[in-house]
């Protein structure tokens, strides 16, 4: 059974076009809540909700509009062999459409393993619908989403350890920078590490969105990172150990 939650598109000039999403959730209550919430928050988003991955595969086979598949796995005890196989099957069933998991567990090991299995996004309850919407847009654009808090739990030092420093000033020693980034690029990387979108980076740093996009491209190139998530991991690794991180570029 498929439930369509579609809002009339109200796209202003210069605003990105709508996104077609398939939501998989066996629980009808949370399925309807997510669908209605996303559809209300984003008027140009079409959410089709289904009860199983089998139903989702049927929807994907019928049309080529879907850009992201959301799958709510709820409160799993942990990533056991059964769940690991289920995630792998889900990724395969959705290809080439990217899969984003919604999980009650903010577990670093589970997130990493999910990414290894091909998942392109991991959403936890601590995120609001607004961040969830940004995550969907990021994945639809070809990126990978992991909550900033989860990145910190994966790499940050134990309580009482060295605190992650803020963006270095222009005259900061080279060892406080990463991959030869300029102070402005370090500020952009700090925002990327916190999961901020290009639009929010531009607002926070007082620049236009195109300039923010250019800085993001430069950061990825200098670090030799393939996407924003990898760049964030590299930043956390560098800042947590307090050592210079060399670029992957030759």
Fold and architecture overview:
This protein has 250 residues and is an alpha/beta fold. Helix content is 46%, strand content 13%. It has helices spanning 28-41, 53-62, 81-94, 108-116, 129-140, 148-155, 183-193, 198-205, 209-223, 228-241; strands spanning 2-6, 19-24, 45-50, 68-74, 99-103, 121-123. Strands 1-3-2-4-5-6 form a 6-stranded mixed beta sheet, with helices on both faces. Strand 4, helix 3 (81-94) and strand 5 (99-103) form a beta-alpha-beta unit. The radius of gyration is 19 Å and the shape is globular. Mean pLDDT is 75; it is low at 3-16, 156-176 and 242-250.
Throw out a few tags for this protein.
250 residues; alpha/beta; six-stranded mixed β-sheet; 10 helices; 46% helix; 13% strand; disordered N terminus
Short description:
With 250 residues, the chain is α/β, with parallel strands linked by helices. Helices cover 46% and strands 13% of the residues. Helix 7 packs across helix 9 (209-223) and helix 8 (198-205) crosses helix 9.
Extended strand count: 6
In percent, how helical is the residue content?
40-55%
The structure class reads alpha/beta
Residue ranges: pLDDT <50 for 5 or more in a row? 3-16, 156-176, 242-250
Task: Tell me the major beta sheet.
Answer: 6 strands, mixed
Numbering strands along the chain, what is their spatial order in the largest sheet? 1-3-2-4-5-6
Return Rg in Å: 19 Å
Question: Number of helix segments?
Answer: 10
Strand content: 5-15%
In sequence order, what are the helices and strands, one letter per element? EEHEHEHEHEHHHHHH
Dominant shape: globular
